[in-house]
Amino acid sequence: MSGLLLKGKNAVIYGGGGAIGGAIARVFAREGARVFIAGRRQAKLDAVARDIAAAGATVETAQVDVLDQQAVDKHADAVAATAGGIDIAVNAVSVQHDQGTSLAELSLEEFMRPIDGFLRTLFITSKAVARHMGGEGPGVILTLSEPGAKLAVGGILGHAVSAAGKEAFSRVLAAELAPRNVRVIGIRPHAVVDAPAAGSYTKELFEQAAAAAGQSVQEMLEGGAMAQGTLLKRLPTLSGIAETAAFLASERAGAMTGTIANLTGGAIVD
């Protein structure tokens, strides 16, 4: 096969101004998709849009609160009206949360923050786009989770429960939308080695663990304790995640649904 993976597809990326969302948006645009990126911070969306436009591709931005169901519905309706439908949707929304605090010190608010935040936005965005997908033209919804969905380690209660919930959501939604010709696939990356340089909050998230290991966050990601805990002895990159997302969203992965793409470098084997 040759040619662009996503030629002629309309793709909406929620969290499109973030590190992972922005990387996916750039690759989708390169592969021929008409890209619509939405998020809370216009400046970050504009930075991604400038890169895409400079490469000669089509992109539109929208400042949308992804926890506001009416706003997300309105945006999805507008995209579908403008583009003639939605073929691909990616939820790359990030919710800041605690890692490293044990049950005895963990507040109910901090425990619930990622569970409510991640699952609420996943429900809102999936419901908004699903009604504009499927039929004769196949649709694809991609979600993102974390290794915490499978890891049994202390100090990540809220994080782990939210990650497991996102993966369960994706599997069940795949069963529900399959009769409408819509695929749903989760992507489970590990900590991303170049995410701090792209402006994510990875540095803040892992500062405590890195300090305990006597390393900087970047040292831990590039070859330290976290990287050494994988079979490949390395963590995923933004480029690798984005390229995988483009493949999964394309017809080359047309037989895949209801599954999780494991990009943990072998930190989890399943």
TrEMBL record:
One of its GO terms (molecular function) is oxidoreductase activity. Gene3D superfamilies: NAD(P)-binding Rossmann-like Domain. The keyword Oxidoreductase applies. Keywords: Oxidoreductase. Pfam families: adh_short_C2. SUPFAM superfamilies: NAD(P)-binding Rossmann-fold domains. InterPro entries: NAD(P)-bd_dom_sf, SDR_fam. Its EC number is 1.1.1.-. The keyword Ribosomal protein does not apply. PANTHER family: 5-KETO-D-GLUCONATE 5-REDUCTASE, SHORT-CHAIN TYPE DEHYDROGENASE_REDUCTASE-RELATED. Belongs to the short-chain dehydrogenases/reductases (SDR) family. This is SDR family NAD(P)-dependent oxidoreductase.
